[in-house]
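Re: beginner question about structure tokens

> Can someone show what the tokenized structure looks like for a real chain? I only ever see the sequence side.

Sure, here's an example I had lying around. Input first:
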Amino acid sequence: MSSIAEQIRKEARKALEDGVVEYVIGWGATRFEDKTTPLFVTKAEDTEKMVWNKYCINGLAKYALDNPYPDKKIGICVRGCDSRAVNRMISDKQLNRENLYLIGIPCDGKENKICETCSHKNPLVYDVLVGEPVEEAGISPERFAEVEAFAALSPDERYEFWAKQYDKCIHCYACRNACPSCSCKECYADQHVEGWQGKQNNRNSNQVYGLTRAYHVGDRCIECGECERVCPMGLPIMRQTRKMLKDINEIFGPYECGLAPDEEHVLGEFDLNDYDEFM
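And the corresponding structure tokens:
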């Protein structure tokens, strides 16, 4: 049996040679042994540059948004998290499934903290699967562990924690740019408006941006952790989004986002049986 990397190259090469795809998005090596980078392969011979190892961490699906009207299909290597991102963007009508060629890759975890609580190691949607599906343990009991521990603090302690975190924010918007659920054509943060949504680099503006983004993502977070991984200031952004998801699970029942391309937004639906003791 050939290695997973060889199988990825084989499928990518075939898709390019057959004219099925315009290019394939995968991972490539860098001059650092413990780093990989997103790789866009347009020529069959360049598929040899594609790699698969424990450092293939970057999410790839969102790059498809840069080419909404491809001449041919866009090939994307998808793990479980990437496939959930694809489903989320299709549900948001940001991508068309017919424009994608998905090379599914079972993933047993990478050198990334978020992988410890991953509940979907196998891709949920794909056109071709390389390798054998891996065993999945289901939703991790540690999924909301940080949120629950944080809730034990007093309101003043929680506020002081987040105030100090957002004092570090530099408004680089890396979290938004990496997030597959942040797909607005024009983000409010890019609009030239002063006042409550001003762009000053201070605690108030930073907190407004962080909270606005958390509520915007809300029930659309696929828990890939890209927002937190790319933050150059080390903000624990997933603690906010998982707090939202924890509340959603408690109010509406068990919920994970991105499991299917036709799923509805939990916060965009109405049911007379919804829990409403808070009203």
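Each token stands for a local structural state, so reading them left to right follows the chain. The CA atoms of residues 107 and 232 lie 26 Å apart.
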